[in-house]
C-alpha cells in the first residue's frame, strides 16, 4: 500500500513506523527538516520537505497513486485542506486528524462530507470516551471505533426484587431499544435468546444507545444510584469532550480552569457541570472544595508533567481514583509506579483508531469477551450479501447471534425486527466466536 503522511509529529511518526514495519510504502511530508531527518534515520520511509497543502508537493509524494493519505499536522485547517487536495489529485482514501469540536461534528453536515474526506479522527474525543467508559464501567466493551461512543456495552448485576425477574427478554421493553446480549449465571456464560428469563444474581451485558443507560440501569437494580463525584483539572478540548461524555445524572462533575473569562465560557457551554476558576492542586483550593472526597480526580491539561504531579498529589491526599491524560505515550507504562490508577494518551488513541481504519476489512472483530463465548463483529455488507433488503427477523445465522446496531450515514441506532440492511451500512453483530465464514456468506463480505 502506498501511504502519504502529512505531519511528522508523534502521531504521524508513530503511524509511519507501524506502517513501514508492515512493509507499506510510506512518504512523510513536513516543513521541519530536523524532524524528518530524525525519522529518516530510524525508519524505512521516504521524506519530503514542503507544505502538505501544495499540489506540487503532494504530486511529488505520489498522491495520484496513493492508497491512503493521512493528514496529521497540529493544525485542523491544514489537515482538512491537505486531504482534500490529495483526494482531488487521486488519493483513494483520506483520513484526517482534527482537534476542535467545530471540525468534528457528531450530527449534521461535517467538513469531511463537504471536502470529500473519508474519515475523521479526533484524539481528544477518543480519549474522553475511553476515560468515561473506565469511570462508568471498567468492564464495559469499547465501541468508539464503531459509532463514536453513541453505542455502549455495559454489564449489570440483576438485583433481588426488580421487575425484570422471571420475565422472558422478548416480554421486556428496554429504553432506547437496548437489548441484553450476554447472560452470566452461576459461572456459565451464554448468548441471550428471546426466551431467556433473568434470575436474581445474573450478570447481563447490555448493548444500547449511550443516552439510554441511566434508564437501563434502573431495570436491573432497585438501589438508588449514588452519585459519583468527579473533579477535573484542565480547560482544553479534552476536558470539554470529557465533560460531555460524563453528562448523566449519575455523575456530579466539577471542572477547574484557569482564568475567569475561560471559566465563564465553559460554564455557558457545559450547563450540567460546575465550572470553577482555580487550581485544584493548591492546598487551599483542595481543602476548601473537598477534592479529597472525590471518587475520581482527572488531570487533562496540555502539560504532561503537571498532570502527573497533580494526580499523584490528589491520590496522596485521599482521592479514590486518579486518572492522567498525557500527550507523550512513553509515559504511560511509568504512571502506575507513582500511584496513578489510569493513564490515557490522545496520540496513542489516535494511532490505534487509525490502524483500525486502515486494517479493517469487510468483517472486523472489535472485541472478544465472556471468556471466548461471544465476539463483537463489525461488518460492511456488499451487494452480493443475502441479507440486503431482508428484514432482520428473516436473517438466519448458523449460531446464536444478533444484529445489535446499524451505522447508516450519520445515524447510529439499535434496529428492530422489521428493519432492513443496506449496502452502505456498517453493521454490529454479536454472536458466537468463529462465525466469520457464516457472516461472509450472509453479508457478501471478506
Model description:
- Strand 2, helix 2 (33-42) and strand 3 form a beta-alpha-beta unit.
- The chain folds into 4 domains: 2-121, NAD(P)-binding Rossmann-like Domain (Rossmann fold); 139-220, 2-Layer Sandwich (Alpha-Beta Plaits), CATH 3.30.70.1450; 226-351, Rossmann fold (3-Layer(aba) Sandwich), CATH 3.40.50; 361-443, Alpha-Beta Plaits.
- The chain is built from 14 helices and 21 strands.
- The model has no long low-confidence stretch (mean pLDDT 87).
- The chain is globular, with a radius of gyration of 23 Å.
- The protein is α/β, with parallel strands linked by helices and 446 residues long.
- The strands form 4 sheets. The protein has a 6-stranded parallel β-sheet with strand order 3-2-1-4-5-6, sandwiched between helices. Strands 13-12-11-14-15-16 form a 6-stranded parallel β-sheet, with helices on both faces.
Tertiary shape: globular
Q: According to CATH, what is the class of the largest domain?
A: Alpha Beta
Main sheet: strands, sense, barrel:
6 strands, parallel
Number of domains: 4
From the 3D coordinates, which CATH architecture of the largest domain would you assign? 3-Layer(aba) Sandwich
Percent range for helical residues? 25-40%
Structural class: alpha/beta
The unreliable regions are none
Number of helices: 14
Please, what is the average pLDDT? 87
The CATH H-level superfamily of the largest domain is NAD(P)-binding Rossmann-like Domain
In CATH, the topology of the largest domain is named: Rossmann fold
Strand order, largest beta sheet: 3-2-1-4-5-6
- Rg measurement, Å: 23 Å
N-end to C-end Cα span: 18 Å
**Strand content range:** 15-25%
- For the secondary structure, the number of strands is 21
Amino acid at each position: 500500500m502506498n501511504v502519504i503522511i502529512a505531519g511528522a509529529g508523534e502521531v504521524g511518526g508513530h503511524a509511519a513506523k507501524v506502517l513501514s514495519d508492515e512493509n507499506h510504502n510510506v512518504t512523510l511530508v513536513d516543513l521541519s527538516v530536523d524532524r524528518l531527518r530524525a525519522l529518516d534515520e530510524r525508519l524505512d520511509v521516504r521524506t519530503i520537505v514542503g507544505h502538505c497543502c501544495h499540489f506540487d508537493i503532494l504530486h511529488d509524494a505520489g498522491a495520484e497513486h496513493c492508497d491512503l493519505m493521512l493528514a496529521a499536522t497540529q493544525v485542523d485547517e491544514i489537515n482538512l485542506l491537505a486531504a482534500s487536495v490529495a483526494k482531488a489529485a487521486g488519493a483513494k482514501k483520506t483520513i484526517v486528524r482534527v482537534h476542535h469540536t467545530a471540525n468534528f461534528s457528531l450530527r449534521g453536515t461535517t467538513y469531511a462530507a463537504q471536502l470529500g474526506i473519508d474519515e475523521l479522527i479526533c484524539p481528544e474525543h477518543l480519549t474522553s470516551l475511553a476515560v468515561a467508559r473506565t469511570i462508568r464501567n471498567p468492564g464495559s466493551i469499547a465501541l468508539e471505533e464503531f459509532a463514536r461512543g453513541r453505542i455502549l456495552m455495559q454489564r449489570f448485576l440483576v438485583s433481588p426484587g426488580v421487575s425484570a425477574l422471571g420475565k422472558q427478554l422478548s416480554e421486556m421493553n428496554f429504553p432506547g431499544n437496548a437489548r441484553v446480549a450476554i447472560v452470566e449465571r452461576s459461572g456459565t456464560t451464554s448468548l441471550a435468546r428471546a426466551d431467556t428469563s433473568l434470575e436474581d444474581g445474573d450478570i447481563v451485558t447490555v448493548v444500547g444507545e449511550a443516552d439510554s443507560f441511566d434508564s437501563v440501569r434502573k431495570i436491573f437494580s432497585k438501589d438508588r444510584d449514588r452519585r459519583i463525584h468527579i473533579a477535573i483539572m484542565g480547560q482544553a478540548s479534552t476536558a470539554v469532550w470529557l465533560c460531555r461524555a460524563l453528562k448523566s445524572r449519575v455523575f456530579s462533575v466539577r471542572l477547574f480552569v484557569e482564568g475567569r473569562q475561560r471559566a465563564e465560557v465553559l460554564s455557558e457551554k457545559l450547563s450540567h457541570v460546575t465550572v470553577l476558576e482555580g487550581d485544584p492542586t493548591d492546598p487551599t483550593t483542595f481543602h476548601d472544595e473537598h477534592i479529597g472526597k472525590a471518587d475520581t480526580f482527572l488531570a487533562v491539561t496540555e502539560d504532561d508533567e503537571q498532570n502527573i504531579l497533580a494526580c499523584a498529589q490528589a491520590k496522596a491526599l485521599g482521592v479514590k481514583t486518579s486518572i492522567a491524560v498525557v500527550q507523550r505515550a512513553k509515559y504511560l507504562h511509568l504512571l502506575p509506579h507513582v500511584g496513578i490508577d489510569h493513564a490515557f494518551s490522545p496520540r496513542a488513541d489516535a494511532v490505534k483508531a487509525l490502524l483500525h481504519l486502515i486494517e479493517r476489512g469487510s468483517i472486523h472483530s472489535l472485541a472478544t469477551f465472556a471468556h471466548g463465548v461471544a465476539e463483537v463483529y463489525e461488518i460492511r455488507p456488499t451487494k452480493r450479501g443475502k441479507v440486503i433488503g431482508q428484514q432482520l427477523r428473516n436473517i438466519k445465522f448458523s449460531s446464536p447471534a444478533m444484529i445489535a446496531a446499524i451505522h447508516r450515514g450519520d445515524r447510529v441506532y439499535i434496529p428492530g425486527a422489521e428493519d432492513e440492511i443496506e449496502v452502505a451500512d456498517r453493521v454490529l453483530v454479536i454472536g458466537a466466536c468463529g462465525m466469520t465464514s457464516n457472516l461472509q456468506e450472509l453479508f457478501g463480505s471478506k
